[in-house]
Design brief:
The protein is of the alpha/beta class. The chain has one domain (about 35-230): Hypothetical Protein Ychn, Chain: A. About 40% of the residues lie in helices and about 15% in strands. The chain contains nine helices and seven strands. The chain is globular.
């Protein structure tokens, strides 16, 4: 694991240096049409799930879905790094203003806490629940450490955050099946009703997040909408 992480860090460093060189060469930042379009957390109304995120994907010229089944290390957020690289590659491939690239982060199984806001991480002690350390404080996380930027792994190389991805137009899908399992665990620990906890967590998504019946449903739906599937 340490060797894999070191290898990824070295790759990030080399990529960062290349990006800096391109920037010094005068490459203009791309204008992503609708990249900061507001995407509000979803709800289930009259038994129908909010699938408005499909409309966002339909407008894109380039789209890919990145599977996120394991929470991972917020100090080395590999899913976010690869998703960011895809967007950066699109910026290199196309002239500014000539494309609209979108990424979908399909958060499921053991990773659903990544889609919950700081209040949920604090209220339900999710850092302790997942044994996840905040890379800044080095204590059990009391805020979503994936939403916030981790310290630079090497000077001049900034790791992406989930907030960065949302700013760049990312769509976040949250497996409600996995969320229900998390709700049950938390409810048992806190001696609360699991349905109440589930409803509370549904209201505590980060911006740009949409509940889907399951991660499998979200993944299939994104692929049906034309997204290339990037498996981690």
């Amino acid at each position: 694991m340490k060797e894999q992480r070191s290898s990824r860090r070295e790759f990030v460093t080399r990529t960062g240096k290349l990006a800096s060189a391109l920037s010094l060469g005068g490459m203009a930042a791309p204008q992503l049409a609708g990249a900061t379009e507001n995407l509000t957390p979803s709800s289930v109304t009259n038994g129908e799930w909010d699938l408005s995120w499909l409309t966002v994907l339909a407008k894109a010229t380039d789209r890919a879905v990145f599977d996120w089944p394991s929470l991972g290390d917020p100090a080395d957020p590999i899913v976010l790094e690869i998703a960011e690289r895809y967007l950066d590659n699109c910026a290199v491939a196309y002239a500014p203003g000539k494309y609209d690239a979108r990424v979908v982060l399909n958060i499921r199984t053991q990773a659903v806490a990544a889609a919950l806001n700081d209040a949920m991480w604090d209220r339900y002690a999710l850092g302790s629940e997942y044994k996840t350390m905040d890379p800044v404080s080095h204590d059990a996380a009391v805020r979503n450490p994936f939403w916030h930027r981790a310290p630079d792994p090497v000077p001049g190389v900034a790791l992406p955050s989930l907030a960065d991805m949302v700013q760049r137009g990312a769509v976040i899908l949250v497996c409600d099946f996995a969320l229900a399992h998390l709700s049950k665990r938390l409810a048992d620990r806190l001696k609360r009703d699991s349905t109440d906890v589930h409803n509370d967590l549904r209201k505590g998504f980060v911006p740009g997040a949409f509940a889907v019946p399951s991660g499998i449903f979200g993944l299939a739906k994104a692929q049906n909408a034309g997204c290339a599937f990037v498996r981690m």
